[in-house]
Amino acid sequence: MDVVDQLSRRGLDCLCGNLRMAARAVSSVYDRHLASAGIQASQMAVLWAVSSADGVTVKELAARLAMHETTLIRTLRILEREGLVALDVGDDRRQRIPRLTRSGRSVFAKALVGWKKAQSEVAGLLDDGLADTNRKLVRLARAAWRS
Known about the structure:
CATH topology: Arc Repressor Mutant, subunit A
CATH superfamily: Winged helix-like DNA-binding domain superfamily/Winged helix DNA-binding domain
Structural class: mainly alpha
Largest sheet: 2 strands, antiparallel
Radius of gyration: 18 Å
Number of domains: 1
Strand content: 5-15%
Distance between the termini: 36 Å
């Protein structure tokens, strides 16, 4: 057996590859359910974080989400163009503090209906249960992001 055969057989042993594959599949379920609200799963995650991060800077929010600041600001700019998020200037004029607009709160509320359906659908696919899986994923994300 050559090296390529060995590597291709080991591919499903790769945690990173499996997490990315699962993330794409799960995101498609959430995207389908969130479509009626006009947003995608990646945008829902940011709207959710903004809704619960009163007065937090983009930098602090990125750290909470284990997301690069440039990626977060790119998503926030899209949401800002759509009128869902406002980026206020912080104490330091270089800082931006995101907040949901009235329209953003409305879209977020509508999206929660789809999110609950997606959450239920994905939860039904998990053997370990949703709470246990979420705990493990959050612990993994926080530990790996810091390292």
